[in-house]
Amino acid sequence: MKISRREWLKLSGGAVIAASIPRSLDALIVEEPLIRDIEAPMFNIPGQISSPVIIEAVELLKNGSNYFVRTRSKDGAEGLVGTKQIAEFIPIFQKLVAPHFIGKDARDIELLVDSVYRANYKLAGIPFWCPVAYVEQSLLDMLGKIAKKPVYELFGGASRNEIPVYLSGSDRVLTAEEEVEVYVRGMAETGTKAVKFKIGGRMSRNLDAYEGRTEKLVQLARKKLGDETFLAADANGSYDARKGIEVGRMLESLDFKFFEEPCPWENLSETQAVAKALKITVAAGEQDSSLWRFQWMLDNEVMKIVQPDINYNGGLIRAKRVARMAEKSGKTIVPHNTQTGPTSVNILQFAACTKNATPYMEYPWRRPQIFPAWYKPDFKIVDGKIKVPETPGMGLEIDPDYIRQATSIVKIGPSGTGNSSAS
């Protein structure tokens, strides 16, 4: 996987320097670009769709508080997905991400995700990767509809058609007693057998949300929810290594199953120290958006459960690559998830076709389940599980009238190149 001598000379400044190239270096110039294992393609979409799918337009729509990314091919095929956390990133979506895909063959989606990164690598991070993820998922929706397959079939097929979930969503504003009662009700309504609680104070330098809350919360959770309930805790980077180990041992004594992000997410050495000192499984990776960093964390035993967010990390393809790394390292993957309803289809598609995903996927829950009429399926949790949609594409069916009522915020393509009505 190399570059040709002609291309190397072009990139290096022209044939003038050719005579100065040492013979040993000249011998190393080879024919095709380097593709490292971490970036190696995983899927053969051209093998499933025989004709090119040329991307003609990428559009951002808004109806009320709901945003959607719609993609269209020159042949009129469309993909449509709901998004979260796009409003803050509209300039990046409009100027750097969406234009990159126009005129390209959507079947080359893996290469396109890589090339938009290389074109903008100095801006890589959550504000960049979320727009990439939304375009990618919209294109996958379009490709699945063309192939008449759910996305999990494009990715090799499902190993399960129902996804067990653990409930999450605490924001530390309730007392310990109130928080536990929320999930007593949540478990009763959904039938789930697993809950994750937020502890500490969120990047709080060892402070609790209020004094004694964490100890009271985890003890009461075990007492109220019972010995058979799968319990986990998320500190959101609240502790240094010493305090993280202390809290982790308390969680071990209560048979909590994993301890997420004990230390600030950028402080890998402290998280590593906690992981090595404890028996409880340490989970991390929510904020990370670098494949290289994930590989380093896996190689150096920073965590045992890998938790990329499918959007923050750039989409389903990059999440599948992290899962591949984790599998090679003998680790499991549980993507971070803040989404419910129509924007949660990505985690269901991922969990369906990822063998080293743990039995439980994260699913926020703060109130009785509500199902607006403008989309289906309803994503209802029944007996602790959500069914994976079987319809082609991402599996989301949106009322056409609801989309017709939406405002076009950005449209990149023949009839609206670069247009934006965003304030």
Structural class: alpha/beta
How much is the radius of gyration in Å? 23 Å
> Helix content range of the residues, please?
25-40%
Strand order of the largest sheet: 5-6-7-8-9-10
Runs in which pLDDT lies below 50 for 5 or more consecutive residues are 1-21
Largest pleated sheet: 6 strands, parallel
User: Which percent band covers the strand fraction?
Assistant: 15-25%
Tell me the overall shape: globular
| Arithmetic mean pLDDT | 92
What's the N-to-C terminus distance? 45 Å
Could you walk me through the main structural features you see in this protein, from its secondary elements to its overall organization?
It is a single chain. This protein is an alpha/beta fold. The chain is 35% helix and 17% strand. It has helices at residues 5-12, 23-26, 90-101, 109-119, 126-147, 151-154, 176-190, 213-225, 241-253, 268-277, 291-299, 316-328, 345-352, 400-404; strands at 55-63, 66-73, 78-83, 162-168, 194-198, 230-234, 258-260, 281-284, 305-306, 332-333, 361-364, 375-376, 385-387, 397-398, 407-412, 419-420. A hairpin with a 4-residue loop joins strand 2 (66-73) and strand 3. The two termini are 45 Å apart.
